[in-house]
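Quick one:
INPUT:
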């Protein structure tokens, strides 16, 4: 009877060891698959960022040319200058994002990778919100001194600019990270490329969930 109990115990121990090896193997395969998916999303994000940076540099250069050749027209110069600064700001931040992404070791610590990706996501959201604040300047750069004689037309133009100023400020506040649970806020983030970072974070989260449930 004692021998049977001992053999049974050995069988259970052997079974536990096999089960543990199976779980480790499954975790390794699952972690590798999710990591590859996350890496694919990050690569797409980087590619899109490079494209936007190149376009941003060209756009800023064009605006700088217009600015320095239109200083005689205050409305145009101020409007184009403001848009140029907003665009330059976004371009610099996008370059910063590439630097942060280059420091991500997708095969290393998941927690550290999540922190860096979350930082990029937060910065991306902030950059998009700031860019909205340039909207009023697109309504004022065609104002000329000649329009001063047309009070009605000038008032309408300034009224439209003021409307976009109020709207852009409202959008800036509404699109704060605390409102990320709203679908339209998430869609806004996705339009700036945030979807790729969100997907990468979700893939990494699934690895952590798998560990908690099975180990």
């Amino acid at each position: 009877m004692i021998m049977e109990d001992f053999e049974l115990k050995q069988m259970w121990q052997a079974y536990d060891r096999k089960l543990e090896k199976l779980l480790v193997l499954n975790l390794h395969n699952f972690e590798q698959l999710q990591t590859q998916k996350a890496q694919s999303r990050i690569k797409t994000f980087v590619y899109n960022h490079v494209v936007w940076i190149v376009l941003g540099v060209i756009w800023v250069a064009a605006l700088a040319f217009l600015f320095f050749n239109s200083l005689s027209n205050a409305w145009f110069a101020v409007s184009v200058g403001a848009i140029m600064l907003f665009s330059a700001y976004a371009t610099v931040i996008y370059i910063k994002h590439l630097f942060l992404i280059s420091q991500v070791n997708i095969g290393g610590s998941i927690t550290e990778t999540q922190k860096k990706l979350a930082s990029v996501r937060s910065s991306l959201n902030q950059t998009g919100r700031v860019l909205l604040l340039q909207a009023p300047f697109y309504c004022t750069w065609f104002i000329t001194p000649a329009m001063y004689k047309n009070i009605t037309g000038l008032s309408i133009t300034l009224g439209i600019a003021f409307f976009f100023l109020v709207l852009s400020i409202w959008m800036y506040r509404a699109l704060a990270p605390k409102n990320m649970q709203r679908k339209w806020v998430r869609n806004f983030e996705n339009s700036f490329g945030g979807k790729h970072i969100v997907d990468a974070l979700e893939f990494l989260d699934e690895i952590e969930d798998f560990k908690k449930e099975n180990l």
